[in-house]
Write a structure and sequence with these properties.
It comes from Aequorivita ciconiae. By secondary structure, this protein is of the alpha/beta class. The chain has a single domain, classed as Rossmann fold (3-Layer(aba) Sandwich). The protein is built from 8 helices and 10 strands. Strand 2, helix 2 and strand 3 form a beta-alpha-beta unit. The structure holds fructose -6-phosphate. Fructose -6-phosphate binds next to loops.
């Protein structure tokens, strides 16, 4: 497996941002669009900060970039500051030159009757662009990737999912109380993720050391969705020294 060990979170974030920038520039040089799968949460914040810096100071352009976010709570209003739509505009899209029509984030204001068709369309749209050139991933403390919680199938695609108790508790502080944390989400699937040409899984900090150790070493199982990545050679794990602490 491809492991990139960085001294600290700052170095890991800059490394990941530069990997993303390289793909954008390579595709630009080839006169093509770069299709990126993006994540939210604490982990990518510094990565997006570095991408914004590259845009402002080193003229990195996002005009050829198409994005698909991994997931969004269901239901949530896009204006709610806990929504991933708000997060992405705040940390990245509002500060770069990406065309608004190139941004895709699951919209979860559709009704329960509409949601299946909505998810199928989201999946089809990713595939209509020829799939993802790069998928950026964090990892949940229960091993989820996107909101593919334990029990998710290897062949799952974009769908409505139930959030795991630990995932909801990890979101409690930002929502103010556990009751305010949505119970469901729309998430792209394990299959959607694993079809990406390149996957960067970034884990930072001691709170991720145990799950990183398990994700890399346990046998592949639905109980730990990130373990499915062991099968795929295009995955690069970018870890800071705290997250890598338990790796033999
Ligand atoms: C978010 C996502 C989640 C997070 C994971 C880690 O879009 O897909 O899988 O990557 O929950 O979150 P943080 O980075 O907050 O530890």
């Amino acid at each position: 497996k491809s492991l990139t060990l960085c001294a600290d979170a700052e170095q890991a974030s800059v490394y990941a941002a530069h990997k993303i920038a390289d793909i954008i520039k390579d595709r630009q040089n080839a006169g093509k669009q770069a299709v990126l799968g993006l994540a939210t949460g604490i982990t990518p914040i510094s990565i997006y900060k570095e991408l914004v810096r590259l845009h402002k100071n080193e003229s990195l352009s996002f005009q050829n970039v198409i994005t698909f976010n991994l997931d969004e709570y269901y239901p949530i209003c896009p204006n709610n500051d806990q929504s991933y739509t708000y997060f992405m505009h705040n940390y990245l899209f509002g500060q770069i030159d990406i065309a608004p029509q190139n941004i895709h984030i699951p919209h979860t204001d559709c009704s329960l009757e509409e949601v299946d068709d909505y998810c199928k369309d989201y999946e089809a749209k990713i595939r209509s662009y020829g799939g993802l050139d790069l998928q950026l991933l964090g990892i949940g403390r229960n091993g989820h990737i996107g909101f593919n919680e334990p029990g998710s199938r290897f062949d799952s695609i974009t769908r409505l999912v139930e959030l795991h108790e630990l995932t909801r508790r990890d979101a409690e502080t930002s929502f103010g109380s556990l009751d305010n944390v949505p119970r469901q989400a729309i998430s792209v699937g394990i299959d959607t993720i694993c079809q990406a040409k390149k996957i960067l899984l970034v884990a930072l900090g001691a709170r991720k050391s145990e799950i990183i150790h398990k994700a890399l070493n346990t046998s592949i199982s639905e109980d730990l969705p990130a373990s499915f990545l062991q099968n795929f050679p295009q995955v690069e794990y970018v870890l800071d020294s705290d997250a890598a602490a338990l790796i033999e």
